[in-house]
Amino acid sequence: MSELEQLTLGLTQAGDCSYLPKESERLLVIYPNQQLNSYIYQQLMERGFRRGGNDAYRPHCEQCRACQSIRIKVNDFEASKSQKRVISKNKHIRTQWVTAPSQDYFPLYSKYISLRHQTGTMFPPQVSALETFTQCDWLNIGFLESYIDDQLIGVAVTDILGNGLSAVYTFFDPDFEQFSLGKLHILRQIEQCKQLNLEYLYLGFQIDDCDAMNYKQQYRPNERFIDNRWIKYKN
């Protein structure tokens, strides 16, 4: 029996969906998380799972299949005209890849949540919430930091997998939102995958009917995990 087959699975109680009104939500979770390591998590990612803190989960809703795990095969990626404009206009923004979080992250995260997500579940901003993204006991995490001169203006928290990177959460200074920093960080995560000779950038869940979660399909071609297999989308 493989390590994956020995995992203990749990199913959460049904609750209100965080993304689609009038829908309910249940999650399939690995329990306990002490069973996890980077090798097992790689296999789980290939089966549509996602990390939250030290836990790995996947939607398991009885009546809804709206959440689709999505990934970019980076060597096949073709930037659109608008994405090329984002790259061109942001050449002055310096990016660096680090493997340890900075104490400068929380003030930036706090400003981002306070100005952009006042009605969301992460308001008011708390250190413990940021730590669910930036810390994991069984996985290496990278941080794509963006600067204008010496000022930190954005961070893309990124899990490091055997065959790719997984975009966990991005936060940035809202004073610089004219630079399309959310899009820029995804484009630079794609470039980081190439620099590390990794095949995929995992983007979490694509939800077509949720305005806050359907932007990921703009990065094409992409692959979505549907009916237990990855399907390539070009349009």
Query: How many strand elements?
Result: 14
CATH architecture descriptor of the largest domain: 3-Layer(aba) Sandwich
The residue fraction in helices comes out at 10-25%
Over all CA atoms, what is the radius of gyration?
A: 17 Å
End-to-end distance: 40 Å
- Please name the fourth-level CATH homologous superfamily of the largest domain: Gcn5-related N-acetyltransferase (GNAT)
Instruction: Provide the domain count.
Output: 2
Overall pLDDT: 93
Strands of the widest sheet, in order across it, are 8-9-10-11-12-7-13-14
Classified by CATH, the class of the largest domain is Alpha Beta
Taken as a percent bin, the fraction of beta residues is 25-35%
* Largest sheet composition: 8 strands, mixed
Poorly predicted tracts of residues: none
How does the helix and strand content classify structurally?
A: alpha+beta
